[in-house]
Amino acid sequence: MVDDSMLNRALLADMIGDSFRIIEAEDGKQAVAQLQKEGTGISLVLLDYVMPHMNGFDVLDLMNKNGWIKDIPVIMVSAESDAAYVERAYELGVTDFINRPYDVNIVRRRVMNTLMLYQKQRTLMGMVADQVYEREKSNNLMVYILSHIVEFRNGESGMHVLNVQAMTEMILTHLVRLTDQYELTPEDISLISMASSLHDIGKIAIPEEILNKPGRFTDEEFEVMKTHSAVGADMLDDLELYKDEKLVRVARDICRWHHERYDGRGYPDGLSGDEIPISAQVVALADVYDALTSQRVCKPPFSHEEALRMIRDGECGSFNPLILQCLTEVAEELKSRLNRGVTGREINVDTLHVTDFAADAEASSRTLELLDYERMKYHFFASMSNEVQFEYTAEPSIIVLSDWGDRKLGLPEIIMDPYSDEAFLSVFGQANIDKLNKMLRATTPESPTVNMEMEVNVDGESRWLHLIAQALWSDENPPAYLGSIGKFIDIDDQQAQLRDLQFKAYHDPLTEVVNGAFARKVITERLGEDHGAERSDDRFVMLVCDLDLFKQANDNYGHQFGDKVLQHFAHLLQESVRTTDVVARVGGDEFLVCMECPPDPRPLVARIHGSLEGEVDGFPLSVSMGVATTDDGVRDYDELFRQADMALYHMKRSGRGGYVFYDDLSEEERGSLFEGGHTALSGIDSDDDDQ
């Protein structure tokens, strides 16, 4: 609600009612600040025109510039009624216009109509986006499963498909930065990367005795093996209903020509240079690199460095110099990512690059823009806040960690069957994983979220993570558990900082016993005065202690020595009581002790007082104590403290170096001690004769 008149804002608020949370802004600048902060959390803007600093049209200009006007409806509210003014407002994107003076029924109806319209629009956009995501995810998953079947028959790791896919994307992305020779959009790169998964689909037609032969091929066997590229292309050409789909066309090119070489010495057609589609050129290089660095039936794996050398030296055929340059420049990223799990594009929402999923092109573009923006924003904040995002599918059992997450935990980005993966279990621990699995499967579609804190092992060091996860359930009846999504948040440093801050907040920095404020809180809870706790069975005693002649320690030996005396005395107090008892510093040289006590607390108090007498480097310790108990039904902290303080005052006036129970003071003594309003903690230490 943006209006420089408080009265106008109040009138509109009353008319709308209390069903909404209303944010008020006095001018355009405040309105823009709130829009920047809240974003689409704002359901509607009621905007005045005439305002200081920035008027209503200026706000609308900024909303258009930032794209907010497409997602946040605006109703202009103003006394202006000039046609040109109203037309200008509509041109800038306002949804409706309300003139002053306001009519309550008109205001309510137009507000509700606008909100319902935009809610339906957002619901529709969400449904379309969900359908796009599910379709893209299903397509990727089917491509992955099909290519994985081929790799399985070939006796190779399913990671070959993922490695080729990831390396293809990395090199193509770097290639478009390096040169504009190849006109590749992000959508093209995504499509080629997905299609690369089908590069060896023709191997399904190769006899198994040749496909999995452990030694070198004979010339005849090699000729049979070489046919897989043309067979794969023919298989895709035979897809009558879909052969004109862009994905199929790209996959067909890759299948047929990913064994062509830049110098024309490849097969099956002997193409050279850029006669070979750039998609096939890049997949060819990715295929060779992964074949070199992977275990195969006929060879052990070469190292990353050796594989790069062999490719550069032409031992594996000739490649486009630009692509070789890209390989060199992404070599370090390859080493850290490939053969460790790659990107997980086949089931990751990050791969969504769809261009034609709805009839309304503007709405589609805006939806994708919002999806990409939210993804970028979420990943940025995740990395800044020590978050590791993950996706887990139950069938097949695969967990995908975010790109930043694998670097944080030292794990592959994709882990097949994590419940039996040694590296994964060494980080998270079998007990944690079993507990999490049980918690997720115990959720319901109506309540799918779980929270859990776990201690993990990262690079040999123990760290605490906070897990927030949501179980995914099918729409069947009964629903089936599909997997989960969520994030791990590193809270170890925060926990350590929090513990340190809490200690500093609750403890005296010199003596490290608790401070007076925290002591009051704890003792109040134990006395039960705030919670109506049972008060008849527990008995407490409070001691207020004062170091006699402490000023002499500072005056004669300096403040550092005085600090040493206080630290020593605090240590003695802690040693003389139980760890569950409260020991606090409540003044300069005044301390407090509160504990549960037996029916007769006098022997306990005598023992404590005796343990405090002694000396520090020749300086004698003399302690005066005032003692109060809850025997008279006192359950109020302030009253118990007042009684102990009064007893201490009496002890100090009587000669110091001992203790006095408040119960032992006569009514006359109690009355005379405080006629001047003094207590041991408020005035006695300033009296000359006490020093």
TrEMBL record:
Domain named HD-GYP: which ranges? Answer: 135-343
**What GO molecular-function term can you cite, just one?**
diguanylate cyclase activity
Record SMART domains: GGDEF, REC
Q: Which InterPro entries match?
A: CheY-like_superfamily, Cyclic_di-GMP/3'3'-cGAMP_PDE, GGDEF_dom, HD/PDEase_dom, HD_GYP_dom, Nucleotide_cyclase, Rev_trsase/Diguanyl_cyclase, Sig_transdc_resp-reg_receiver
Ranges of residues in domain Response regulatory: 1-115
Residues that the record marks as modified (4-aspartylphosphate) are D48
Q: What keywords is this UniProt entry annotated with?
A: Nucleotidyltransferase, Phosphoprotein, Transferase
Its transmembrane ranges are none
- Mind telling me which NCBIfam families this protein's record contains? GGDEF
Q: Which PANTHER family match?
A: CYCLIC DI-GMP PHOSPHODIESTERASE TM_0186-RELATED
Spell out the protein name for this chain. Answer: Diguanylate cyclase
Q: Which organism is it from?
A: Adlercreutzia shanghongiae
